[in-house]
Amino acid sequence: MNKERHVLLVYPHPDDESFGKAGSVALYTQAGTPVTLICGTLGELGRNMGKPTFANRETLPYIRKKELEEACRVLGIDDLRLLGLRDKTVEFEDPEWVADKIEAVIRDVKPSLLMTYYPKHGVHPDHDALSHAAVIAVKRLPKEERPVIYGSAVTHDARAVLGPPDVTYDVSSVLDTKLAAMRAHKSQFEAMFAQMEEQMAKSPEARQQVEANMSKEYFWIYRIDD
Amino acid sequence: MQPISVDVVQTKLSEFLNQEVYLHLETTNGAYAAHRFGQPMAVCAYIRNGKVQFERATIAGDKPYRVGLKMADGWIYAQGLTDFEVDAKGRLLLAGHDEEGRLAVSLQLSRTPFPMSVLDEEGV
Ligand SMILES: [Zn+2]
Q: Domains in chain B: how many in total?
């Protein structure tokens, strides 16, 4: 992996930084690269309330904030910026106004790499709205100051539309850290982990398959053409 | 939250009659309903801090439950409610959870506005 000066993560929900990306983040922090995380919302409208249910609609944001802080601790992210936007509403805000907030952080930490969802391939409207705003923010910089953008494309047709990923990280050396970061999001991932463990218990081959899938993380470089 | 007790919820609902109260009303099948769970589309609707006043409030059904709030000019309705809580701020929280414990519907009443961002709250 390339040596980076500073990595900036731009995601709308607590757990976005861990799901499908935590291994790469851990590789960067273990290499001594400072990582800043911009988290747009606190996932106030998530429908997972823990299993068994331990959160409610009003306590969920407090719980998810704590879970996010724990995931950051696990991953070695020591700079967390919360934007205070609201779950599911990001796409209805003025994109330039959201970009202002991201631009301020970019000018502050001067990242060499910015990780976000790949525009239009984030599935969740908040993912696409925040990646769009991140691109606007990067475009405002002089070309030579722009960070490289790694996008996570999670649509079913990502490979058909974008081609194979530009960057594939083998994160098997930090798999435990990745799983610990995901587990920190207890309210969101308990149900998923139960399913995964059930899958792994089926046979040694099934376990290997799950671990192999978890050990690879994929990114597409988003190129700004101007 | 705990399983709905009809008597407790009915009593609490009645305490909100004939005054301006804040309503949170929501239903969702999850943002990934179509992407990951094989449903035709993600469906969600919510109102946060609708200011309402109602003159009749009734819980009906038998697990799951329904709630109807009759206003001078209309109705507020929720179906599929399973759990309730009266929290430390005196707010009535009603929710319907599916078999996986995921929230599918919620109806909440408060005399003060529900927070828009908990970052604005004290001590956070
Ligand atoms: Zn997300």
A: 1
CB contact under 8 A, A56 and B95: yes
Q: How near does any CA of chain B get to the CA of A58, in Å?
A: 8
Residues of A in contact with B106 (CB under 8 A): 57
Q: Interhelix angle for A175-184 vs A22-30, to 10°?
A: 120
Decide if B62 is inside a domain: no
Give the closest-approach CA distance of B51 to chain A in angstroms: 18
Nearest CA in chain A to B119: A84
CATH number for the domain running over A7-222: 3.40.50.10320
The interface predicted TM-score (ipTM) is 0.88
pLDDT band at B124 (very low <50, low <70, confident <90, very high): very low
pTM of the model: 0.92
Domain definitions of chain A by residue range? 7-222
Q: What angle do CA B55, B57, B59 make, to 5 degrees?
A: 170
Q: Residue with structure tokens 């309730």?
A: B84
Range of the domain at B92: 1-25+49-54+88-97
Determine, yes or no, domain membership for B2. yes
